[in-house]
Amino acid sequence: MPKRTRKASAARKLPPATGKRKYTRRATAAAPTAVDGAIDDTTVGAAAYNSSKSAIEVTHDPSTQCGGDGALSTDGHDTWEEEEVYSGRYELSPEETYRQTSARLLLPLHAVRFVLTQAKEGATVPFLARYRQGETGRMDEMQLRLVMDTAKEVTEVHRRRQFMLRSLESRGLLTPALQSALESMAHVSQLEDAWEPYKERRTSLASRGRAAGLGPYAEALLHFNPEDPECKVRLDELSALVHRTDDGERLLIAIIAEDVQRSGELRRRIGEYCRHTARLSCTLMTKPRKKVARELQEESFEALRRHFAYYDKKSWSVQRIAAHVVLALQRGEAKGALKVDTESGPKSHGLFMHTVREQYPALNRLLPLSSSSVPTADGAGAYSHVFHAFSYGRKIVHAGLQTAYDHLVKQAQFSIRRDLKKSAEREAIVVFAHNLHHMLLQRPLSRSRILAMDPGLANGVKCVALDEHGAVETFFTCTLMDEQKMRRYVIQVIESKKLNKVVIGNGTASGRVTDLIADLIKQQKWEDVEFAVVSEAGASVYSVSDIAKEEFPNLDVMYRGAVSIGRRVLDPLSELVKIPVRSMGIGMYQHDVNEKELMRELNYVLESCVAKVGINAASANRCVMEKVPGINKRVVDQIVLVRHARKLHSREDLRRVPAMTESVYQQIAGFFRFPNSPEPLDNTSIHPESYPVVRRLVMLYTAGQLGDGEMMAKKPEDAAGGAATALGNAYTRQQVAQQLERMSPTQLAKLASEKLSCNVETLELLRQELLHPGLDPRASLPHAGLLRREVYDVKSLRPGQLLSGVVQSVTMFGAFVDCGLHDSVLLRGEGVDALQVGMYLNQCICFDSLDHLKRPRMLLVGPPAHAASGASADGMKGGASSAAPRRLRLEAEDVLGSNGRGFVSQAAPAAGLYDLQASHVQGDITAAAPTLTVRVMQERKRRAGEALGSANSTSILSSIKVEERSQTNLTSREHLSHSPVTKRARAEPEADATARHVQRCVETAIVSSADARPHSTLYSPLPSISTLKGGFTKPSANASQTSKPTARGVHAGGVSDQHGTGGGSSDAVFSF
């Protein structure tokens, strides 16, 4: 059958009325009511609602995948399905949402209930994190947002799951095993993958075949039993019926393929094996592959090939690939320069056939063991006449199984690529948020008068002089073509305006301007003048924005960018909020990640930083006020008007602003500061609702009833003045805070409950704010830019030379640092991932050498204390494990624990992690539990050492080490079991013990798996195997009647007698 290559997100529609066939691409689903893919989407596994759609190309045959027709596909049924899901029938009750969210995150139910209830009423995350710590259980902002996001996912998963269960039950397809599998799934993508073979497709080959009456004949082939009269009749008339039916053979093959794909155990094993063994291989294209590449000129395409040449003929294991590599491959594939293939493990087909024979034991009488369709004497055994009598049925079954295998592998590969993409995007978004957070919280450069310079060649160097508050004093333009004139201008402005800082943008010609300024500082012998090179990303965007036009209506556009460059050093937070976050250049692969998720996360960071620093109501600009969580543009406009009318002096005035509601005031009041308010608490982070508590604290202090009352004796005049006077006294407030600081937690709890009627968390917040009123959290952080007086030349650097620098951006593959050279350098080494934007590295940057592009190679040595805290004393050797790429999380591996509590990941962690994890297991809740294989190998080592003396233990332990090395080629890591190791087996000589081990390996691949049905007995005889002594041994007849394996869960209380397989022999799986 011819195969066609189409994108996974493409969809075919019915021909229009004009008779012409039209192919259109439907938009990606972006709302709960959107349509989710057509029939061809489902053949490769539809992605979850609101999850990012992959741009991966998947090659498949629509006519054979799940019986898909491919010629008459419509999306009408999918539209109905989406409407049914969101019809309101499958909504989860609020209380059940709270319970499931609490169980999944292992958080207290009352805290989750409070957070979700308050969020529904309009409470913001910063407000809850700061002023509702007692009710939320001290959750921080990240945990609060995780609760809200998980509640949304729980609701969506419930809708889809209930729809699927009702649909399956109405069609008679729901089994207890399938229901249990659906209820253990935690993500929409998992549900869609499991739902894919059960979708109703009116025009699919399987549906047409069932309508033609071929369904019972497919069932007769899968449950082959010639002794059954009814089955014998259907098998006899199979060939004639198929030839009488139009396209009957294809229809029958499609029915068999669909029935086999519906085996949950088969889908689980194939998916799990592919996730553990798959590799991504990459090839550099010699000719343009996509339209976007074909439209490029030959020179441009060659430049594109050179850009991605590093990835040519390389491959990565899914278990070890890094997030930035996934995003790079995705970008190269989208541009048409790379071809990325997903290759599953070599034993996937053998595992497929082994599981099929398990699930359909009757097929052992119809199919031979060998890959040849002609049975042999050993392979056919007593059923040789069956193979010849039903050769046509065997041919149909072969084709159906091959179709099912191809589809299952392709769907597993698609699921891997989809989950890798989503996980890599999440990490890229985290990098954006991390960099933006630390960039916004850089310390303002106070008491500095700045000359901001925007370098350029065509339009010259734009210069603007700014005072301490960022106001423009003068501006001019000079060119590098007339360097002497430029020197005179700069000297005149710096000396006349008494400027002490020069801020240069890192754009075109910044290197020449930097050399000029450094030479002027040295020539003029300016003692207090320093310069810094900062990022000018987003300055041009700001210069043409409406915000810049409103701020500088009479200033030319070319100078507005220079103003932005200078102000982002004076006050980074106030200036950078005016620039679109995607224009700041602080992340990686920002154009390849989900834009909606990225903007949502970055807006969260903006709100968090603004709430943490606070707003000076007397001077804050409109852009900063719009980022206060809980506020809206209409309220901001009214605040600006009231402030312009000089009627905004306190938080009470803020309450009386037009358009201000009580709920909005409650959310935003604590984030506004009023330095000149008659109420001293208005210049702190204390919320107005806590003012009465502060007054009661002052009254207790003035009466000598707070703590030991010793401090009151030092200032008796405060008691005479009354509590009101004492509240306005900064010294008194400090003494109150110090008294609270001396109190024990028990005393604080007693004071809060008996005398103040508040919770302990509120009292601790008041103590902190009274100790440090109006504290700017940026005061102890580094400022933007590396201020220096000279420029280093890369040619003068010597290997091993140490430099200092300021971190500009952090990624998953290194950090970009300004260390005094003309350009930022990429810093690598242990501890780089712990760096932060703006961090100053003092003599921690080691120059190594120049690469092939003459760029300096820099290594981080002697990282900061907090970055190196986890490293061992052995330096690089001890920290080598942390340098390995962190494994990307795949959604398909997440399984809900018992009663929906927590996640039980199916990923295979390192064996060394088990000792740390076992002590934290509580009941049936496990987080990333180790596989059964890891547990078995540890127990077998212990038992071998106990049972044998030093002479025999050496040989046994060496065999165990061989088993450990073969674990990577294991067909199934968790679900293939073998007979227990008895004392008699351990006492045998080395050769016999090894022979028994080899025999168990062969039996392992043939007998039932860990959770196979008890009656799944194989009818085919077991093959003979060779021992190490040269002889042959016959497996026992009851090899398939092994004891039932234990459950999959791993508990801390000991190991079961059942052990996982110890080896992965290459001939221990079936071949097709």
Question: Topology, please?
Answer:
Elements lengths: L3 E4 L3 E2 L10 E2 L14 H4 L14 E4 L15 H10 L8 H12 L3 H12 L4 H7 L1 H4 L4 H30 L5 H8 L4 H8 L9 H7 L3 H8 L6 H8 L1 H7 L3 H14 L2 H14 L1 E6 L6 H4 L3 H10 L6 E4 L5 H12 L3 E6 L4 H12 L17 H4 L3 H6 L1 H50 L9 E5 L6 E6 L5 E7 L4 H14 L4 E5 L4 H15 L5 E5 L4 H5 L2 H6 L5 H14 L1 H5 L18 H19 L1 E2 L5 H5 L6 H12 L6 H5 L6 H7 L3 E2 L17 H12 L13 H12 L2 H13 L2 H12 L3 H12 L30 E10 L2 E5 L6 E4 L11 E11 L5 E5 L4 H4 L11 H4 L10 E3 L6 E3 L8 H5 L13 H16 L2 H16 L11 E2 L4 H5 L2 H17 L18 E2 L5 E2 L25 E2 L12
Parallel strand pairs: 8-11, 11-12, 13-14, 17-19
Antiparallel strand pairs: 1-4, 2-3, 5-6, 5-7, 8-9, 9-10, 15-16, 15-18, 16-17, 18-19, 20-21, 22-25, 23-24
Helix pairs in contact: 3-4, 3-7, 4-7, 10-14, 11-12, 11-14, 14-22, 15-19, 15-22, 18-22, 22-29, 34-35, 36-38, 42-43
Short précis:
45% of the residues lie in helices and 10% in strands. By secondary structure, it is of the alpha+beta class.
Q: Widest sheet: strand order?
A: 10-9-8-11-12
**Percent of residues in beta strands?**
5-15%
Sheet of most strands: 5 strands, mixed
* Portion in helices: 40-55%
- The CATH topology assignment of the domain at 209-369 and 386-435 is Tex N-terminal region-like
**Rg calculated over all Cα atoms:** 35 Å
Organism: Leishmania braziliensis
Region (Disordered): 1-32, 964-996, 1030-1072
Protein name: Transcription modulator/accessory protein
Domain YqgF/RNase H-like: 448-543
